[in-house]
């Protein structure tokens, strides 16, 4: 203490900001900060000036104006009378749908291919190598188009499913025992598959729609309607999963004390599915099969199937292409993860008498996850961002509605682009945070 | 110090945002940049050798001839329905001559100027003959292919709503994709401007199996577009176009212009030929700009007949686009 007070007091000189290492780093940081601030203010200024020069304003009022255009594939109710804001949400839901389904499919494909690529079976391993190299090294836009064009070119049109008057006439002649001319047609050129419920056409897949005869009602928050039936079903599923977890915990306790694991599979099945099935039966669950409206004589009317729901060719192509493309990258990540686990782990596991399948699922993969998760996050983010390529196949996602038609019809380029960037950023950050939390749960815990 | 930097920045900005003077830019560049279609046969499409031809393309060439004295000094920038107005507003192109419909919101909100209407059009539907449809009002429940970013999208919604019908929209990016999907059967009908449908039909291998339904569901005045605020440039585009119309009205063609100019006593023809008055100087050009435009591509009727007229595969009748003297709507203000 006494020594410190005797230190000669230095006079501060300006040159010390550059030559004195105590201050230099601070000086550099402040200079960079000022430059950054200037650059930012220049950008903002430039924007304001240019907007003024073009006589344009900056506001988001257009989101409440009638959109006036239609969207082929919608998850939430939408008509051309809805607002641009609602069209934004339709697009957002479409984006999230492709991102969600795509990520799940890509993970399944990736894990399977990654594991199989390490297979001792030479042929299987080589086929997987070819798959990975082909998909990884061709731009994803080409894959999307490559899958989409055949989907819209091959396959029947909806009109090929129609029963026409000549067919009815021909059948009537046949029933009376008459002879048909050789070129007479008695059945439509195409028919539905899967017990006559699903129609696969150039325009997409027409699927049966689940309907409830006695729904539990619904309530609305703003523009959005939430159904009690869906909430009830979700609650039942959650409860079933919780009860099942309890059952498995008890089984484990028994196994640890007695060494014998009680049989639980049929109890699990019962707990998981019986309550949901009962609830659905109680609510009067049935499927509405897509079909053409028919006249009394049985002739099909109209251009398209009525009822049911449609998975458009564009949605199908986009999801499959993104899943296969990203799956190839995930396969490599999985392979790297597995190879990062020392061989001793599987040898030890074999020595304990575990079969190869269980070795993989109980010993190797759980450890490999630690290596796999971080790069996997960026693959999920890539897939989510790549959904914006949907515009190439006429899939109206966020880029197609807000960043496409709305932007074009309202002329609010800057507003739409900024809002769209903000939304994509938010989605990506949410995925990133979620995956990071999962990552922490599989990391090595220091005990 | 910070203040000086900001001032300097402001000075740079002031220079950067000055947008007037498209004419000077074009002259300095020695080339006109014309926003055109990505490829619509008859209106604006690149040929196998990369040269552009078409009804809209000829107006670009006439403009280049008027401004630069050489009809070949045009660079065509293909724009889609979605990108065209942004390309114009950002200065990427000098003028947009690309089947663009004049509407209130484009004129005001998008800050653009439609200086003329070079083709009066309306939206129609094309269907395959074997669909058995003879009127657009029978299209209830149909799947419709439609180009995104166009007025046709909004007309379609209005037409189906007004007639109490429903439809499924397949939004395609451009004309070629629309045609592909329509031909593949991914949609029952393809809708766009009737002229565009005729052009598309002309390129189909089995044109006789497709019909254009009689209903025209909208007004689509198509014309050249420039940016708001540069009125001189707007005047140049407008009067170059009017020169072609007046030439037709006066019976002046590419072939007989020199001859008529030498012998005429009509003061308006003399002004058009640059022999009288100082019309050119008033819009920053020389006096022969109108003559050069007509000599480069011919009069309006010649341009029409050569690209989309009844003798071409597209086979459009003059209809609304006949001169006002022949019962049409094409009418140029007096050249005086």
From TrEMBL, chain A:
Swiss-Prot/TrEMBL GO biological process terms: amino acid transport
Domain of life: Bacteria
UniProt-recorded Gene Ontology molecular function terms: transmembrane transporter activity
Membrane topology: Multi-pass membrane protein
Segments passing through the bilayer: 23-44, 96-118, 130-151, 224-243, 264-287, 307-331, 417-438
Domain ABC transmembrane type-1: 92-435
The keyword Disulfide bond appears for this protein: no
Similarity remark: Belongs to the binding-protein-dependent transport system permease family. HisMQ subfamily.
NCBIfam families documented for this protein: HEQRo_perm_3TM
Protein name as catalogued: Amino acid ABC transporter permease
Organism: Neogemmobacter tilapiae
The organism's taxonomic lineage, starting at the top: Bacteria, Pseudomonadati, Pseudomonadota, Alphaproteobacteria, Rhodobacterales
TrEMBL record, chain B:
Keyword Iron-sulfur attributed: no
Residue intervals of the Solute-binding protein family 3/N-terminal domain: 31-260
PROSITE patterns: SBP_BACTERIAL_3
Record has Transport as a keyword: yes
Gene3D superfamilies the record matches: Periplasmic binding protein-like II (3.40.190.10)
BP terms from Gene Ontology: amino acid transport
Protein name per UniProt: Amino acid ABC transporter substrate-binding protein
Species whose genome carries this gene: Neogemmobacter tilapiae
């Amino acid at each position: 203490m006494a020594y410190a007070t005797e230190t000669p007091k230095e006079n501060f000189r300006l040159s010390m900001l550059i030559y004195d290492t105590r201050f230099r780093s601070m000086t550099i940081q402040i200079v960079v900060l000022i430059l950054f601030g200037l650059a930012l203010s220049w950008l903002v200024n430039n924007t304001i000036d240019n907007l003024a020069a073009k006589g344009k304003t900056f506001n988001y009022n257009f989101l409440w104006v009638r959109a006036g255009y239609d969207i082929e594939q919608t998850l939430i109710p939408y008509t051309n009378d809805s607002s641009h804001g609602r069209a934004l949400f339709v697009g957002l839901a479409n984006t999230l749908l492709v991102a969600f389904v795509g990520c799940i499919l890509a993970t399944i494909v990736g894990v399977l291919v990654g594991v199989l690529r390490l297979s001792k079976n030479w042929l299987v391993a080589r086929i997987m190598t070819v798959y990975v190299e082909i998909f990884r090294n061709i731009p994803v836009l080409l894959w999307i188009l490559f899958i989409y064009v055949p989907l819209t070119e091959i396959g029947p049109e909806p009109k090929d499913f129609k029963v026409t008057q000549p067919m009815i006439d021909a059948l009537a002649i046949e029933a009376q025992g008459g002879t048909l001319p050789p070129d007479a047609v008695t059945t439509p050129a195409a028919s539905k598959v899967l017990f006559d419920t699903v129609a696969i056409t150039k325009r997409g897949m027409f699927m049966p729609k689940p309907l409830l005869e006695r729904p539990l009602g619904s309530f609305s928050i703003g523009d959005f309607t939430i159904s009690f039936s869906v909430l009830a079903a979700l609650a039942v599923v959650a409860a079933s999963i919780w009860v099942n977890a309890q059952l498995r915990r008890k089984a484990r306790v028994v196994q640890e004390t007695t060494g014998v694991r009680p049989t639980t599979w049929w109890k699990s099945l019962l707990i998981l599915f019986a309550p949901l099935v009962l609830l659905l039966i109680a609510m009067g669950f049935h499927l509405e099969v897509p079909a053409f409206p028919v006249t009394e004589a049985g002739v099909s009317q109209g251009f398209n199937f009525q009822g049911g729901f449609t998975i458009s060719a564009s949605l199908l192509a986009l999801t499959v292409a993104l899943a296969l493309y990203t799956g190839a990258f995930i396969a490599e990540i999985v392979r790297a993860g597995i190879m990062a686990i020392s061989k001793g782990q599987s040898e030890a596991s074999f020595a304990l008498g575990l079969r190869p399948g269980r070795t993989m699922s109980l010993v190797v993969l759980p450890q490999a996850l630690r290596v796999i998760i971080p790069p996997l996050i960026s693959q999920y983010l890539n897939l989510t961002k790549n959904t914006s390529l949907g515009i190439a196949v006429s899939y109206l996602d966020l880029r197609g509605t807000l960043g496409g038609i709305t932007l074009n019809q309202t002329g609010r380029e800057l507003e739409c682009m900024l809002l769209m960037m903000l939304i994509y950023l938010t989605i990506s950050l949410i995925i990133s945070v979620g995956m990071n939390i999962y990552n922490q749960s599989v990391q090595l815990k220091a005990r | 110090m910070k203040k000086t930097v900001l001032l300097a920045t402001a000075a740079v900005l002031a220079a950067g945002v000055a947008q007037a003077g498209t004419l000077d830019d074009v002259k300095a560049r020695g080339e006109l940049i014309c926003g055109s279609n990505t490829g619509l046969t008859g209106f604006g499409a690149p040929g196998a050798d990369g040269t552009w031809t078409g009804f809209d393309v000829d107006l670009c060439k006439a403009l280049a001839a008027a401004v630069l004295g050489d009809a070949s000094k045009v660079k065509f920038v293909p724009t889609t329905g979605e990108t065209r107005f942004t390309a114009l507003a950002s200065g990427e192109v000098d003028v947009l001559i690309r089947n663009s419909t004049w509407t209130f919101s484009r004129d005001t909100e998008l800050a653009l100027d439609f200086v003329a209407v070079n083709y009066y059009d309306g939206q129609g539907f094309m269907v395959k003959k074997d669909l058995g449809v003879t009127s657009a009002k029978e299209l209830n429940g149909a799947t419709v292919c439609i180009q995104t970013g166009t007025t046709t999208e909004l007309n379609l919604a209005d037409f189906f709503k007004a007639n109490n019908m429903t439809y499924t929209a397949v939004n395609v990016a451009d004309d070629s994709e629309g045609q592909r999907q329509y031909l593949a059967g991914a949609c029952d009908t393809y809708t766009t401007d009737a002229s565009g449908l005729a052009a598309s039909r002309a390129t189909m291998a089995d044109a006789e199996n497709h019909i254009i339904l009689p209903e025209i569901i909208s007004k689509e005045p198509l014309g050249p577009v420039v940016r708001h605020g540069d009125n001189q440039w707007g005047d140049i585009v407008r009067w170059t176009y009017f020169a072609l119309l007046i030439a037709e009205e006066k019976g002046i063609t590419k072939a007989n212009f020199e001859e008529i100019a030498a012998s005429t006593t009509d003061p308006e023809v003399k002004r058009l030929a640059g022999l009288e008055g100082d019309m050119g100087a008033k819009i920053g050009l020389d006096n022969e700009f109108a003559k050069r435009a007509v000599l480069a591509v011919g009069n309006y009727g010649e341009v029409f007949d050569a690209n989309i007229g009844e003798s071409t595969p597209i086979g459009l009748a003059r209809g609304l686009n006949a001169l006002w003297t022949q019962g049409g709507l094409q009418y140029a203000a007096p050249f005086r």
